[in-house]
Amino acid sequence: MSQWVSLFKKEMLEMARNFKWIWVPITFILLGVMDPLTTFYMPQILDAAGGLPEGTVIEIPTPAPVDVLMMSLSQFSTIGVLLIILTSMGAVAGERKSGVAELILVKPVSYGSFITTKWAAMLCLLWVSFLAGYLASWYYISVLFEQIPIVEVFISFAIYGIWLSFVLSVTIFFSSLFKSPGAAGAASLAFVIILSLVSGTLAHIFEWSPAQLMGYAEGVLRTGTLQDHSVSSIVFSVACCIVILMGSTYVFKKKELAS
Amino acid sequence: MSIIKVDNLVKSFGDIKVIKNLSFMLEQGKCIALLGPNGAGKTTTLRMLSGLMKPSSGDISFSGIRAGTDIRSFIGYLPQHPVFYEWMSGEEFLVYVGQLARLSKKESKKRADELLELVGISESKKRRIGKYSGGMKQRLGIAQAIIHRPKMIMLDEPVSALDPFGRREVLQLLDNLKQETTVLFSTHILNDAEEICDEILFLHDGEIVESGTMEQLNSRHTQSKMEVVFKEPAKKFLSEFAQMPAIETFSFEGNKASFVVKDLDIVKKTLLKEAVQKDWPLVKFEISRTTLEDIFMKVVKK
């Protein structure tokens, strides 16, 4: 256990030293506030951009606050997901590629701890960053539009966070499988895109798919209650994360460190 | 007492057999060199011994350790090109690695301080490893390998990348270390092995072609050499002498004659007696022994 803590602390320290603890939350906050601001100030922006004939009347219906929050969520699901993959794809693969894993794993370190501490540290970063971004979005919506009930915001936050955690787990898996961080990132991205496409087009079959969680998060915001299959989808996603982590440890152990 | 026993170790990458049927035993508390030219399989052997690589077949057993226990607690390993977390300081890295080897934080800190002093980089302990020179990294690598007082340390080419001064110091360090632990290191430099090792394993093409203590190797392979130089062509004086049965081979090169002799005493006596009686114009008379390098060349060419 104390070894797990040492490994975990090292991961946290590393993310502080290379400023991941600064720029990842900031990026998420920017993603979060972008849509409320641009949506609210769209008429002014269009006006300032000019090029419109004198006397043009710009009338844009004010969107519902939930719609604006959903815009932010879709930012997180594209750029946010990409950011998660980019920051974590080298977690295992990078250390193996550089050769430092050779030094660490010749000490009596459990392979499981080696993988799970990296996952856990990234998970902290992810939830904190996502929380910051989501709250920022919610705050600007409250100020510029109308307030959305905070309880529903938090439930949708938790549901969507599980999807992001799933993405992270997949990335850690490919990072353990491949020696090159680039390959790990590409494979993770491809996997996430295919999963989203398949679950999106065959939504009635893949109700429990982790990729549906965004839909369930939206459902909570719009109706105030959990929709059918939300819980099964959440449980399935969490189970997936655990299985993927075990799989990561397995494939990592199987691979020869030095080749 | 033997500390490690290797039986019929084989490692192949695809179709290429890098290690062919390696078997040997290492004694506790000794310093052993794994000597061989580049590509002989030294690194592969060390990686298998340290558990970083699985053998294709064969068996490695450590004495006094039950089968199935994690051997990694008992060994220290330094790869050929050690890579560290560049963003850590030397001290942080040692403390971290010590904790991974299940030392308590306090112990680990104490040990890190000791070792930084021992390997001579305590002045730079607060600096980031990314700013360390190659020699400092090598020293840090040795420190991390012994932080948990392993029963055996394995070092892959610990001195090959160092300048002559660094080499001397690191060899000295290894020499001191063998008081506490068994040291196995690979090298392709003969002098290093000769200087501090009790035992040498010659590895060539994935096989052990020769092994033994320095004395054993010497008695098995070394012969006496004699070199005589005259003011005039040597053949004039020694062509008859060279036919003596105690001389194995001879060669003349102008004023110089060299012999490889079987019985040094007889040859020496005869030659010097004649030189005095006949008043030969001797310039140089030298007796030497074939060196480890000659053995190395002989063994590898076989």
Write out key terms for the chains shown.
heterodimer, A: 259 residues, mainly alpha, 11 helices, 77% helix, 0% strand, globular, B: 302 residues, alpha/beta, Rossmann fold, Alpha-Beta Plaits, six-stranded mixed sheet, 10 helices, 34% helix, elongated
Brief overview, please?
The complex is a heterodimer of chains A (259) and B (302). With 259 residues, chain A is an all-alpha fold.
Structure overview:
The complex is a heterodimer of chains A (259) and B (302). Chain A is mainly alpha-helical and 259 residues long. Chain A is 77% helix and 0% strand. Chain A has one domain. Chain A is built from eleven helices and no strands. Chain A is globular and about 75 Å long. Chain B has two domains: 2-219, P-loop containing nucleotide triphosphate hydrolases (Rossmann fold); 222-301, YebC, transcriptional regulation domain (Alpha-Beta Plaits, 2-Layer Sandwich), CATH 3.30.70.980. Chain B is 34% helix and 30% strand. Chain B has helices at residues 42-49, 90-100, 105-118, 134-146, 164-177, 190-196, 214-221, 235-238, 264-277, 292-301; strands at 2-13, 16-27, 31-35, 57-62, 75-78, 152-156, 182-187, 199-204, 207-213, 224-230, 247-253, 256-261, 282-289. In chain B, the strands form three sheets. In chain B, strands 5-6-7-3-8-9 form a six-stranded mixed sheet, sandwiched between helices. Chain B has a four-stranded antiparallel sheet with strand order 11-12-10-13, covered by helices on one side. The radius of gyration of chain B is 25 Å and the shape is elongated. The model of chain B has no long low-confidence stretch (mean pLDDT 86). Chains A and B meet through helix 1 and helix 6 of A and helix 2 of B.
